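Risk register update: the risk of archive-format incompatibility is retired. Evidence:
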Amino acid sequence: MPTAPQNTDELYQALQENDRRPYGRTRTVTAEELVDAAEQFDEPRALVHALLELQEAYTYGSEPRKSPVVFARLLNLFDEQPDVFDDRLRHLLFWRFKWVGHALRQLPEVPLTGLRQWLTEMRDRYEKADLGLQPYYGQAYQLAAHLGEGATLAYELWASRTRTQLSDCEACEICERALYHLMEGDDERALSVWEPVLAGKESCQEEPARSVSYALLPLLRTGRTDRARELHLAGYRGCRRNPSMSQEVGRHLEFCALTGNEARGLELLAENRIMFDEVDSPLDQLGFLTGAEVLLQRVESLGHGELPAAGYAGRTWTVADLRAEVRRRADDLAARFDARNGTTAHADRRRARLDRAPLVETLELTLRARALDDVGPAAAVPATAPTARTATAVPDALPELIVRARALDEQGHPDAQACWARLRTLVAARDYTHPDDPAVGPLVRLRADLLAEEASRAGDKDEFTEAADLHEEAAALYDDAGEAGQAAVARACALLALAEKAVADASAGNAGAGADVPADATQGTDAPSENAGKDVDAADPKAAALTAAHASMVRLHEETPDLAPSQEARLLRLRATALGLRLQTSRSEEHAAPVQAEVDKLFAFATEHDIAVQVSGALLLRTSTHALSGDLPAAVTEIDALLDRLKSEGPAWHLPRTLGLRGRLQLALHDAQAAQADLAEGLRLAAEWPADAVDTARLHGDLAEAVMHLGRPDEALRHLTRSADLELRQGSRTDAYCTYSNAAQLSLDLGRVEDCIALLDSLLAEPDVAAGEVDDRLVAQLRLTRARALHAGEDLKAATAEFVALAAESAGWDDDPGSHAMIAAETAVLLGESGEFDRAREAADQALAAHARAPRYEHLSNSLRELARLQTQQQGPHGLDSARAFLTDAGRIADEARTAEFETHGRSLETALAYEHGRVAAYAGEYEEALIALDKALALLGDPNQDDDAGEWAECVRLAGAVEGLYLERPAPALIRLDAAIDLLTALGHTEEAEALTSLATRLRDE
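Archived output:
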């Protein structure tokens, strides 16, 4: 708290501000300071308010030891100065007797006699105040359930009594009744009782999150797996990172353990690591630790006890170590409670949870399905699909292994990966001895081979600088080994990587992107690309970088003698690839012919020397060149011939990529059905090969696009997430996060809000994201989608907080003011929904300032009009002036858009503004003004026709009819307006739009 309140007005304001904070240490410490401040004023009522706030902070901040102490002070104040307590404060005081009872049950050091004495005190106080005793019997039942004895009688005494004003809320009582039936072993009856809470019809501070956590396993036992999944996602979000709901978090961990979602369970455990140290309630600790132990026990039983796990602060933990520590602490807590209670209830309940077997083998909980193999170091291993093909065996003998790796690599065979991986492990060992075998060559050559293979993998992940450095290092080692041809290939690969880095930097706006390209790269060569497209290169640094790289490759090729056919073919392939990338970058017709010339050279050479992999590569490049040149029919003809060749002559591992390219061509030709068939076949064949070798991730991504065009978005979502999973496993993390972002947006578009939030929560918890190692704009996009999902899920408070944070961050994006304009505008709307219109105005002004630099006409206009509506809807006439100011800004934007000849996606900004003027005036009671504005909107809209979407026009007529007929009390002209609109809509076939108008007309006639 920056400064202590100087008077009671400031104290009450500070209490209100603290009440808006989330429960936790910050709120609790501030509440403690406010009690100290209140004690300085001669105003008992102010102290009562401060003490009530402090008790609430302790209760929901999981500090049960302190709550009864604060309540004792309140009770003394009530006994000494009862007049200080008005009806509301008196109600709160008697309500919180239950809070104290709950707090005392959580503390094993409080003797059982103390618990019973408190119940007697509560009963006496209620009787003296002439209050109904149903709340007292509710507390008596909860104590009996806690003890594990006498619960049936206590339940009947409570449940049979009529509710009073001091009874627990409906949601909490429903939960207690359901838990009783659950304790009796009746899952069906418990779920039936729970239904109003699980359906969201009854709720409170703790509900439905508490009920959901208990209902998960009964739902599974009764076969309602889809409902269990849905409620897990929504319910977990309601209790995550909340120390006062640590028991609920524990039950979600248990649910993950019993549904084959152990990896997700470890992820949630890490997210809630604070609960190991910040939960002060022993009973809550026991519940959380038992749930955590169920999870850890399951993970260890599956053979993953050495995986890292998030546990108590101060050291690192493995699953096995943490499980042992958790078991020790939880056993001790259970024993303490049972010793206090004189029963074995808590140890028995703990044992029952730990002995429970998995309820389903696998239940897919989130869009991002993860296995324990994905946790920890194993996650970095490239993914492989289940193989229907028998992979080439990795030889045991070292000389044979080296020879096999080189032979497979020369063929471009995917099985080379396994050989190189084995060799990398062997060579890294301290006791490695290189074989003295002429067929193998010296160790320096093998080290060069391993560096070249590592460089290729870096290039596949778009890590171009690292790839270039590794290729250059490999080239130097090849020189040392006397392998000039291999050195030339490695240097050519480095040239291409540097050029690709230059292209990537230029695309990102890096003016110095081409600095790494050798200065003399374009000198002294008769390459066919020397003169082609020079004008294009001069204007495009990306094309220039690739032209320079190609020229250097040609010179390198010409200057390297005694090349083996496979080496010469690789150099030709690299030359053609550089020019193909240049064409892809520039899309210039002048760059097409040089590509074809290089491809023809490669094809002729590879055919002459029977190098199948390079023949296929040449034909793929030829197909791509036709496609990039805009000749899609020629590309399809070319690729059909290639597919026939691959099916008859191979290489078979080129089939998946080739079918993928054909699928993309079909998409470009708007034949989604044919594209889907090609891509699905490509995916089927890809299952026989390592996923990264045949780009299975790309196949899934393209197939997602194809099935979207076919109207199958749920299937598209599955392919997107699978694509992202594979990209992540292969180390292409940026690509993976982009694909996940698309999947999250699609899930939100499909109304799968909880799926969207769960996916994004998982991504934002990734170590590299949390450490700030991922592109900040990409992370911001993930957070923005999550904030929109929270809003769609009606979590306005959390959504607004995230939007405010994003608006503050994006204000510093000087290179992208347009994005800041849109984020700030959305932030303003959410602040308006929250009733914080001063802050909404500030956010809107930020959006307008950014819009001035990078116009976002439609987005800003929509937001400003919505703010005006919200302000008059919530504040009526008092908000009219501020609402009109928002509309004035929207009007200025409409004028700017018209001057800029901006085309909207729907109705014009002027029409939308006129309608909003009418709606705002109607909310403020200015009905004549409203009617004039609505008539203007109708004139701008014009009458609908048969093909129009008549919904907006009909709504405008309806509102005008309501204003005229109901509020201005002129039913006759209103009915004329409505009847004419109904006749027109009916004649045009817009019967659904006419229904609301018919209903209003009927009401006007009846009145």
